[in-house]
Amino acid sequence: MRETPGTTDVFKALADPTRRQILQDLRDGELAVGEIGANFPISGPSISRHLSVLKGAGLVTERRDANRILYSLVEDRLALSLGEFLSTVCPEQMVIRSIRNHRTKATS
């Protein structure tokens, strides 16, 4: 299987439970670094490293607001990376989903 550039970074980022939890915490909207760090029993520099990995994988973005750095989830990046991987590993599932969606629309 040939992965697109950056897909490996996404899976490396997802390999760590702290980073997965950060992504879940960001699902409701952007958070400041301090707000993210408050949810973990690890140091601020460790949280920053985790955020750097997530940002490098394209899973989060950051913006400055005065002296705060706010992070947000890049939802499309995660969905597209996982969808691309799944479509190469289980292509029949894509066909089944397409048929199921077509049937659902036809009965609506």
What would your notes on this structure say?
The chain is 62% helix and 13% strand. With 108 residues, the protein is an alpha+beta fold. A three-stranded antiparallel beta sheet has the order 1-3-2. The longest helix has 17 residues. It is elongated and about 50 Å long. The mean pLDDT is 85.
List the helices and strands and how they pair.
Blueprint: H1 7-14, H2 17-25, E1 31-32, H3 33-37, H4 44-56, E2 60-65, E3 68-73, H5 75-89, H6 91-107
Short description:
This protein is an alpha+beta fold. It has helices spanning 7-14, 17-25, 33-37, 44-56, 75-89, 91-107; strands at residues 31-32, 60-65, 68-73.
Walk across the major sheet and give the strand order: 1-3-2
Assign the structural class, choosing from mainly alpha, mainly beta, alpha/beta, alpha+beta, or little secondary structure.
alpha+beta
Share in helix: 55-70%
3D shape? elongated
Which sheet architecture does the biggest sheet show? 3 strands, antiparallel
| C-alpha-based Rg, rounded | 17 Å
User: Poorly predicted ranges (pLDDT <50, ≥5 residues)?
Assistant: none
What order do the helices and strands follow? Answer: HHEHHEEHH
Ends: how far apart? Answer: 37 Å
The helix tally amounts to: 6
Report mean pLDDT, rounded to a whole number.
85
Strand content: 5-15%
| Count of strand segments | 3
